[in-house]
């Protein structure tokens, strides 16, 4: 039994087992959130809307390579995903967080933690100012979406909002970070009780926010390696180079050199922009500067060889070398 458990853990860690997402159970009964959110809204929201995001996500990734991606990876690279994956991965993550931070008022026992309280004082002076800022973001969100309190890669608390089921982990979001509090402002979250009065819903929802849970989320976000990943992903020149490298190198692996033949100049241009870019401070070190120079030289060589119409085998070998160097750059970023 212990052996089987170990095998499953190793397989999961190596992404060998396909992901299937499940609807998380609520901590309390649907009626326990009354009077601030009515039981029928909670039931439909959880058992119909959230369940639909889960079902649609499972359906969208079934039989594809995305079955082996984590939920965070699906969202981190949302700009590369289909609309269905983007909307439903966000829908599942956002609602799971929402249920976690909602606790019926008479069941809230854990207080605001000191570290979190100090961070609120530093950024917003007072908890009431923070609530007002989140309500402002939620009210200003046109149509459906979410208002967020996030921890940024600089470890600051920031209030932001996103449309539809996007969230600040996604590379499509302007402000990025780890959400620790999210308010659902889709009409399905409030319309039965509050109709068109989003402001009344926003006034009431604070009675259900469990600041003890949000405090725990703040502390764990500060130590989450995802913050460094988001910071690296916010290095636009690295991302742009990666895009062209993957669109030229991967076809070359299967013998299709056409994308590289057509885009070697673009690859070189991106490598120059990357070499001259401002390296985000956590990744800035002599090793990475050296690797970026090497990468630029290799891309320059590839372009020259391509212009001279060198043989496919030579070009294939050179792009594989440049790809290795790029992985050195990415590896250094994880140090
Ligand atoms: Fe919702």
Strand content: 5-15%
CATH class of the largest domain: Alpha Beta
Mean pLDDT: 91
Q: Termini separation (Å)?
A: 36 Å
- Classified in CATH, the superfamily of the largest domain is Iron/manganese superoxide dismutase, C-terminal domain
Low-confidence stretches: 1-16
- Estimate the global geometry from the Cα principal axes: elongated
Task: Tell me the series of helices and strands, N- to C-terminal.
Answer: HHHHHHEEEHHHHHHHH
Report the biggest beta sheet as strand number plus sense, adding barrel if it closes: 3 strands, antiparallel
Q: Which structural class is indicated by helix and strand composition?
A: mainly alpha
State the share of residues found in helices, binned by percent.
55-70%
The tally of strands reads 3
Count of separate DSSP helical elements: 14
CATH topology term of the largest domain: minor pseudopilin epsh fold
């Amino acid at each position: 039994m212990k052996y089987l458990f170990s095998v499953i853990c190793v397989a999961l860690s190596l992404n060998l087992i396909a992901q299937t997402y499940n609807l998380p159970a609520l901590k309390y009964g649907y009626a326990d959130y009354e009077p601030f959110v009515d039981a029928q809204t909670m039931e439909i929201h959880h058992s119909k809307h959230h369940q639909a995001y889960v079902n649609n996500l499972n359906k969208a990734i079934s039989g594809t390579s995305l079955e082996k991606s984590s939920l965070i990876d699906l969202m981190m690279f949302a700009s590369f995903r289909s609309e269905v994956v983007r909307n439903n991965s966000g829908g599942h993550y956002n609602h799971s967080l929402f249920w976690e931070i909602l606790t019926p008022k008479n069941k809230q026992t854990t207080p605001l933690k000191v570290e979190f309280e100090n961070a609120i004082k530093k950024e917003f002076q007072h908890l009431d100012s923070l609530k007002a800022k989140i309500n402002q973001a939620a009210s200003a969100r046109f149509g459906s979406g979410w208002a967020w309190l996030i921890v940024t890669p600089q470890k600051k608390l920031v209030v932001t909002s996103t449309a539809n089921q996007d969230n600040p982990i996604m590379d499509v979001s302007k402000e990025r970070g780890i959400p620790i509090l999210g308010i659902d402002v889709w009409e399905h979250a409030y319309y039965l009780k509050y109709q068109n009065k989003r402001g009344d819903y926003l006034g009431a929802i604070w009675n259900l926010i469990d600041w003890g849970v949000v405090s725990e989320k703040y502390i764990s976000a500060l130590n989450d390696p995802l913050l460094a990943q988001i910071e690296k992903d916010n290095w636009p020149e690295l991302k742009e180079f990666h895009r062209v490298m993957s669109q030229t190198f991967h076809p070359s692996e299967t013998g299709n050199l056409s994308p590289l033949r057509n885009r070697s100049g673009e690859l070189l241009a991106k490598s120059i922009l990357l070499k001259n870019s401002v390296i985000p401070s956590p990744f800035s070190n002599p090793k990475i500067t050296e690797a970026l120079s090497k990468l630029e030289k290799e891309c320059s060589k590839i372009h020259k060889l391509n212009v001279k119409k060198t043989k496919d085998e030579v070009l294939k070998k050179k792009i594989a070398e440049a790809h290795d160097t790029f992985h050195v750059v990415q590896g250094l970023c994880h140090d």
